[in-house]
Amino acid sequence: MSTSLRLSLVIPCYNEARNLPLLVARLRETFVREDVEAILVDNGSTDDSPAVLAGLLDGVAGIRSLRVERNQGYGHGILAGLRAARGLIVGWTHADMQTDPADALTGLELFDGVDPQTVFVKGRRHGRPAADVAFTVGMSLFETVLLRRALWDINAQPTLFPRAFFERWQAPPQDFSLDLYAYYQARRSGLRVLRFPVRFGERAHGSSHWNVNWRAKARFIRRTVGFSLRLRKDLSHPA
To answer: What is the pTM of this model?
Structure first.
């Protein structure tokens, strides 16, 4: 692993061919430091994403891609990217441009002046529809009570943490529960959780793969609650 890289930002991309030109253009504008990299994980896309990525990244420094041949979940793609990351600080954000990938650079500043091994950084979304905020409040309260740790706006991006913290994970989930898992493990391990405001807007193109309607949200809730109950059992064991 190269110690010259301070940050590796993983961005899972599933059928995001239309968003990729905007995403790469923004990364090329902002990821100009030699100590940061972005890893775009083609998470088993069935659209033109492989060809689009190949064309966009030809000869580009600081941005690379990784192909997962078969989509096995949102978390699976992120974990593949984290394993390939070279930075001392690692993390992820989304490819849909609802948040600015450059937010990760703002989050990186929160590691300045502190021991980076003790910090977990996460955005906190604003500018969202009232119904989505209500959903987030409900899920946050449920997880906080169930897991006995303060957990708020769990799926906010970006999420950043020391690589050594990632290397201690055991059997992390392969789906959207990965956001909860990372946040919960940070709280459980005693990391200092730092939050910063992130504007959350509309997707540039396409639609969400889970936040489509209340039926999709119900499926998300069932999966998350099931995973949360398994995490709850961990409370009887020392961190």
So the answer is: 0.90
